[in-house]
Amino acid sequence: MNSGHKQPVSVLVVIYTTALDVLLLERSAHPGFWQSVTGSREDGESLINTARREVLEETGIDTASGQLSDWQMTNTFEIFTQWRQRYAPGVTHNVEHVFSLRLADRPPVVTAPDEHRDWQWLPWREAAERCFSWSNRDAILLLPKRPASGA
User: Fold this and answer.
1) What pLDDT band is residue 97 in, cutting at 50, 70 and 90?
2) What is the tens place of the pLDDT at every residue in 114-128?
3) Among residues 131, 133, 77, 67, which one has the least CA distance to residue 103?
4) What's the CATH number of domain 9-145, 3.90.1150.30, 3.40.50.150, 3.90.79.10, 3.20.20.140?
5) What's the whole-model pTM score?
Protein backbone atom coordinates (compact mmCIF):
# COMPACT_ATOMS: atom_id res chain seq x y z
CA MET A 1 0.00 0.00 0.00
CA ASN A 2 2.99 2.31 0.45
CA SER A 3 3.19 4.60 -2.60
CA GLY A 4 6.48 6.12 -1.48
CA HIS A 5 4.65 9.23 -0.28
CA LYS A 6 4.06 10.27 3.30
CA GLN A 7 0.49 10.02 4.52
CA PRO A 8 -1.10 13.36 5.41
CA VAL A 9 -2.01 11.88 8.80
CA SER A 10 0.41 12.39 11.67
CA VAL A 11 0.85 12.36 15.41
CA LEU A 12 2.14 15.00 17.79
CA VAL A 13 3.38 13.52 21.08
CA VAL A 14 4.12 15.97 23.88
CA ILE A 15 6.55 14.27 26.26
CA TYR A 16 6.56 15.76 29.75
CA THR A 17 7.30 15.00 33.37
CA THR A 18 4.96 15.18 36.34
CA ALA A 19 6.74 18.48 37.17
CA LEU A 20 5.56 19.79 33.73
CA ASP A 21 9.00 19.87 32.15
CA VAL A 22 8.61 19.29 28.41
CA LEU A 23 11.05 17.60 26.05
CA LEU A 24 11.73 19.54 22.84
CA LEU A 25 13.77 18.45 19.83
CA GLU A 26 15.58 20.70 17.36
CA ARG A 27 15.21 19.66 13.72
CA SER A 28 18.50 18.86 11.93
CA ALA A 29 17.34 20.23 8.59
CA HIS A 30 15.93 23.40 10.16
CA PRO A 31 18.09 24.71 13.01
CA GLY A 32 16.04 26.81 15.39
CA PHE A 33 12.85 24.79 14.74
CA TRP A 34 12.02 23.23 18.12
CA GLN A 35 9.20 20.75 18.49
CA SER A 36 7.79 17.78 20.32
CA VAL A 37 7.84 14.34 18.72
CA THR A 38 5.96 14.29 15.42
CA GLY A 39 5.62 11.80 12.62
CA SER A 40 3.44 10.43 9.87
CA ARG A 41 1.41 7.25 10.07
CA GLU A 42 2.87 4.40 8.00
CA ASP A 43 0.69 2.08 5.92
CA GLY A 44 -2.23 0.75 8.01
CA GLU A 45 -0.59 1.49 11.35
CA SER A 46 -2.90 2.53 14.21
CA LEU A 47 -2.39 6.04 15.52
CA ILE A 48 -1.34 4.79 18.97
CA ASN A 49 1.29 2.59 17.33
CA THR A 50 2.46 5.55 15.26
CA ALA A 51 2.90 7.50 18.50
CA ARG A 52 4.82 4.62 20.13
CA ARG A 53 7.09 4.17 17.10
CA GLU A 54 7.84 7.86 16.65
CA VAL A 55 8.69 8.38 20.34
CA LEU A 56 11.11 5.44 20.27
CA GLU A 57 12.66 6.45 16.92
CA GLU A 58 13.07 10.13 17.79
CA THR A 59 14.05 9.94 21.48
CA GLY A 60 14.96 6.36 22.37
CA ILE A 61 12.25 6.46 25.05
CA ASP A 62 9.98 3.42 25.38
CA THR A 63 6.40 4.64 25.92
CA ALA A 64 5.85 1.73 28.35
CA SER A 65 7.96 3.73 30.83
CA GLY A 66 5.20 6.32 31.19
CA GLN A 67 1.56 7.05 30.48
CA LEU A 68 0.79 7.45 26.77
CA SER A 69 -2.56 9.18 26.22
CA ASP A 70 -4.61 9.90 23.12
CA TRP A 71 -6.16 13.33 23.60
CA GLN A 72 -8.88 12.62 21.00
CA MET A 73 -7.96 15.99 19.50
CA THR A 74 -6.91 16.81 15.95
CA ASN A 75 -5.42 19.79 14.18
CA THR A 76 -5.58 20.35 10.44
CA PHE A 77 -2.92 22.56 8.93
CA GLU A 78 -1.40 23.44 5.59
CA ILE A 79 1.81 21.55 4.85
CA PHE A 80 4.75 23.93 4.37
CA THR A 81 5.55 24.28 0.67
CA GLN A 82 9.14 23.06 1.14
CA TRP A 83 7.85 19.74 2.54
CA ARG A 84 5.02 19.03 0.07
CA GLN A 85 7.20 16.96 -2.27
CA ARG A 86 7.10 14.22 0.39
CA TYR A 87 3.34 13.81 -0.17
CA ALA A 88 1.27 12.67 -3.14
CA PRO A 89 0.64 15.32 -5.79
CA GLY A 90 -2.16 17.69 -4.78
CA VAL A 91 -1.90 17.02 -1.04
CA THR A 92 -1.71 20.36 0.77
CA HIS A 93 -3.06 19.67 4.27
CA ASN A 94 -2.25 17.30 7.11
CA VAL A 95 -4.40 16.02 9.98
CA GLU A 96 -2.41 15.80 13.19
CA HIS A 97 -3.59 13.68 16.15
CA VAL A 98 -2.44 14.85 19.58
CA PHE A 99 -0.98 12.50 22.20
CA SER A 100 1.07 12.96 25.34
CA LEU A 101 3.54 10.83 27.23
CA ARG A 102 3.73 11.60 30.95
CA LEU A 103 6.92 10.41 32.67
CA ALA A 104 7.89 10.40 36.34
CA ASP A 105 11.25 12.02 35.56
CA ARG A 106 13.63 12.88 32.72
CA PRO A 107 15.00 9.70 31.12
CA PRO A 108 18.10 9.65 28.90
CA VAL A 109 17.34 10.90 25.38
CA VAL A 110 18.96 9.50 22.25
CA THR A 111 18.03 11.31 19.05
CA ALA A 112 18.52 10.27 15.44
CA PRO A 113 21.05 12.81 14.08
CA ASP A 114 19.46 12.82 10.62
CA GLU A 115 16.23 14.09 12.20
CA HIS A 116 17.24 16.09 15.27
CA ARG A 117 20.42 17.94 16.15
CA ASP A 118 19.66 18.75 19.79
CA TRP A 119 17.14 18.28 22.60
CA GLN A 120 16.28 19.98 25.86
CA TRP A 121 13.88 19.80 28.78
CA LEU A 122 12.13 23.08 29.52
CA PRO A 123 9.40 24.23 31.91
CA TRP A 124 6.08 24.05 30.04
CA ARG A 125 5.67 27.81 29.45
CA GLU A 126 9.20 28.15 28.03
CA ALA A 127 8.70 25.06 25.88
CA ALA A 128 5.48 26.49 24.45
CA GLU A 129 7.24 29.75 23.58
CA ARG A 130 10.12 27.90 21.88
CA CYS A 131 7.91 25.81 19.53
CA PHE A 132 7.69 26.91 15.91
CA SER A 133 4.37 25.08 15.44
CA TRP A 134 1.15 26.68 16.70
CA SER A 135 -0.43 23.25 17.26
CA ASN A 136 2.54 22.11 19.35
CA ARG A 137 2.49 25.35 21.35
CA ASP A 138 -1.25 25.06 22.00
CA ALA A 139 -0.95 21.42 23.13
CA ILE A 140 1.80 22.31 25.61
CA LEU A 141 -0.28 25.18 26.98
CA LEU A 142 -3.08 22.68 27.70
CA LEU A 143 -0.87 20.42 29.85
CA PRO A 144 -1.69 22.04 33.24
CA LYS A 145 -5.42 21.74 32.45
CA ARG A 146 -5.26 18.01 31.68
CA PRO A 147 -6.28 15.63 34.46
CA ALA A 148 -3.23 13.97 35.99
CA SER A 149 -4.65 10.52 35.37
CA GLY A 150 -5.64 11.17 31.77
CA ALA A 151 -2.93 13.46 30.42
Assistant:
1) very high
2) 999 999 999 999 999
3) 67
4) 3.90.79.10
5) 0.93
